């Protein structure tokens, strides 16, 4: 089933290969990261040599495979132009990742294999291919080279996330989770999974570090379906970082719903992956009131994965997420994702909790 789908779509084969290469890189960067390899961006969030070099690797593969496709990527090379040491490290990391032997499921023409190293200028230019502004029409990719950089730095969950959007609809979502155990309840279960969703064709999990076309990988590939939860089995999937989502609001929603199990806190779109395979029943992310606008790369692959696993994803008003507004999702109304039956109930609970809040404000 799974190889049939990826063979049918060259975009998915390219995207899986790109995310796998980047995950090998980020895993090795984590094991060798030194103190001065992390910068703080203007919005006070961290960015590491891993984020920049992973974006260089994925953008290279996309640019070679689909030269006319624009890319909306989280990072850009501005901070690297004035920092020679950091730039040299990123060029070294990206080139090492690109020059590794061409594997089953990859092509040399995608800029891979021995001899495919690029100059420093070419690496900066390819990182900057991610500056596209997005929009409502045509084909574009959106990339978060390390989603959950804070989780990455803690050695916890993070994800390499890539998505193909056509006329503002997500068509393909690939999420590489190097640190995610196969079974959340058993932390010693094998880590490293990749999640793939193709619109209309389903959502799948397969081992990250095996070629997707290898018999071993094919036999371990599973089609994902969100199970029907009983109330006592439900729990919320939410951010670790208090600055990213209003966790006190989640607590009230859980109370209204009668959910007694504690929330699972996890960084990145690994939460959407966990939801799609039935680990926890509800993804809830409400704005903290700072005016932060959610980015399309933080939700495009995760939302398709959940929908293809039979779930529903909306904002807190029940409206679909709009991937055609540019680099962000526009005004932030939060995100609710859950299985079909549970979603309607959560939406009601969120509306009730919001009404309570605005009543308390008026008093
Ligand atoms: N102030 C903020 N509010 C909400 N999300 C944020 C904020 N700052 C960064 N993010 C992004 O939120 C996502 C992590 O959310 P979570 O808390 O669910 O792990 C990341 O994509 C992170 O970016 P980044 O990709 O740089 O890590
Ligand atoms: Mg970031
Ligand atoms: Mg992100
Ligand atoms: Mg990121």
TrEMBL record:
What InterPro entries does the annotation carry? DPNP, Inositol_monoP_metal-BS, Inositol_monoP_superfamily, Inositol_monophosphatase-like
* This enzyme's EC code(s): 3.1.3.7
Q: Which UniProt keywords apply?
A: Hydrolase, Magnesium, Metal-binding
UniProt cross-references to SUPFAM superfamilies, sorted A to Z: Carbohydrate phosphatase
A GO biological process of this protein is: sulfate assimilation
Protein family according to the UniProt entry: Belongs to the inositol monophosphatase superfamily.
Instruction: Report the protein name in the record.
Output: 3'(2'),5'-bisphosphate nucleotidase
Native organism = Cristinia sonorae
